[in-house]
Amino acid sequence: MKKSIIILTVFITIGFSILYFSKKTYFKFVNYNRKMENKVYKPKNFNGNVILIGPEIFGFTQDIKSIAEKLSNQGYLCIILDFYPTSKKKSFDYDNKGRDISLDLFKSLNKEVIINNIKKLIVSLKRDYQIKNIGYLGFSSGAYIGYWVATEISLVKAIALVSPGWIADENFPLSKPKAPYLFSKNIKGSLLLIAGDKDKLVSVEDLNTVKKQLETTPVNNEIIIYSNTLHGFYIKSRSETYNENSSNKMWKKVTKFFKTKMEIINKEVLFVVTSHSEKGNTGKKTGYYLSEVSHPWDILKNAGYEIDFVSPKGGNAPVDGFDLNDPINKKFWENEVYRKKIENTFKPSQINPKDYVAIHFAGGHGTMWDFPNNEEISEIASKIYENNGYVSAVCHGPAGLVNIKLSNGKYLVDGKKVNAFTNEEEEAVGLTNVVPFLLETKLIERGAIFEKSGLWQSHVVVDQRLITGQNPASAKQVGEELLKGLK
């Protein structure tokens, strides 16, 4: 009898433990910030991704809850954010009284406090749970907050904003001293904006202003404007503004956006290109060598990888080896998204190494001047490598490897087989006495085991998670070897 009771007690204890920890996995974080009473929707089959939902001024309405339920049914853990932590009431009626009360509440918010609360929630999610990626879906005022989230929280990688009221309004109380769109250069994630052409809170003119601002940034973005569509077109219970056709299109676009971007986020590679445009005192121009970007890019992009660009100075990177007779060069150069990215490269300070599974140093003579002593880029590469990521470099790109040190104090290349633009090749192009050092010699000084082939021959060396190529002819194979490693 006693044995039966003990066995029963054990099973009950295990049962309650499983129930508790299962529940805890999804709900404990609701209480991370006592000031926010966020509403959580737990999926039956969790895909590891979280979508934060920024509701419009009316708060936790049934329409917003329905959207959260739909996304939850697709496997996302959805959290409707509480923007009114000081208010006992979390939902307001769609009438003038409800609009006035909720708008007053919204205007009284402290933007910094709201953003910090969201940051705390995100950090807690990332720290304590097996969260893959975090997205944000905002409506109206929630989309307004979402634009601030996009500019200030790099951990949110996919941001969809529907009818984003006031983002271009510098007179709006929460926009002081500047409207959110003016901070577009700080956006790291992919951005989707959807609005109607008859929206009173964000006009077509406003959206075009935002679009021009976004064009100066490397961020992936898309702005969609639906015709004959009012603000609040997605709220079915608001018959005076609801537009079934636009609402259905919005829903399809948003779900596809999150599905695509959430999958891509785990497959990001960082390309490093030079900011230096002069070959010493020769008066000749240089920059990154186009094919040493385009050929690895083509291999990785075709395999579903997203590529970001960083340079020592950020901004427009100078280009060399500009040959559009090469079909891959032409393909890259005519790709609007990536052309924009490489003409608006990130600064090293904008990069989070945790976002990338690999880093690739493209060549071009300019790298010899600005890669070796850039401590920020060296640290980024070291962190990616020590996070089980890959490091690749081609031609003069290995100039970025010469000063990378690991946490054990050793140079990355020490004891590893590598290659790069050889001393003979440097002599053949007449720049032995122009470049600040000879790359082959410097790598050997750092303890590398240097391998090479004859002039202009393709030669690629793989040693653990370090992949190096000798010259432009090696660029494609470097991309192929990097892809093999990543798979």
Write a short abstract of this structure.
The protein is of the alpha/beta class and 487 residues long.
Question: What's the topology here?
Answer:
Layout: H1 2-27, E1 39-41, E2 49-54, H2 62-73, E3 77-80, H3 96-107, H4 111-128, E4 133-139, H5 141-152, E5 156-162, E6 190-196, H6 204-214, E7 221-226, H7 244-265, E8 268-272, E9 288-289, H8 290-302, E10 306-310, E11 319-320, H9 327-333, H10 336-342, E12 358-361, H11 367-370, H12 375-386, E13 390-394, E14 417-418, H13 423-428, H14 439-445, E15 449-450, E16 460-463, E17 466-469, H15 475-486
Parallel strand pairs: 2-3, 2-4, 4-5, 5-6, 6-7, 8-10, 8-12, 9-11, 12-13, 13-17, 14-15
Antiparallel strand pairs: 1-3, 16-17
Helix pairs in contact: 4-5, 8-9, 8-15
Task: Give a written overview of the molecule.
It is a single chain. It is built from 15 helices and 17 strands. It is α/β, with parallel strands linked by helices. It has 2 domains: 237 residues, Alpha/Beta hydrolase fold, catalytic domain (Rossmann fold, 3-Layer(aba) Sandwich); 219 residues, Class I glutamine amidotransferase (GATase) domain (Rossmann fold), CATH 3.40.50. The strands form 4 sheets. The protein has a 7-stranded mixed β-sheet with strand order 1-3-2-4-5-6-7, sandwiched between helices. The protein has a 6-stranded mixed β-sheet with strand order 10-8-12-13-17-16, sandwiched between helices. Helix 4 packs across helix 5, helix 8 crosses helix 9 and helix 8 runs parallel beside helix 15. The longest helix is centred in the first third of the chain and has 26 residues. The radius of gyration is 26 Å and the shape is elongated. 46% of the residues are buried.
